[in-house]
Amino acid sequence: xxxxxxxxxxxxxxxxxxxxxxxxxxxxxxQLKKLSPAEPGCLRYELHQSEEDPSVFxxxxxxxxxxxxxxxxxxxxxxxxxxxxxxxxxDSMEITTHKEIELV
Length: 104
Description:
Alpha-Beta Plaits
């Protein structure tokens, strides 16, 4: 068996809204959902809501490569939302990055 790594970078961010902050957090997500997919190298920008706990949201984002992901992270609006706005709206936030692999 051989493992082949795709050059695409997958970012998975899971956030749990504070009590009574879900609508406010969704408003922020709406803004991010308009801006981020327009970036060069952003291939997919998905937002999911947990069926078990509607206050839990997961972004699954696919970027062309590490450079495209870094470009996304360096945008003023990304920094503003994740450094200044979102922390006041969430109880927890976990962000991980991944590479898709193919087993041949």
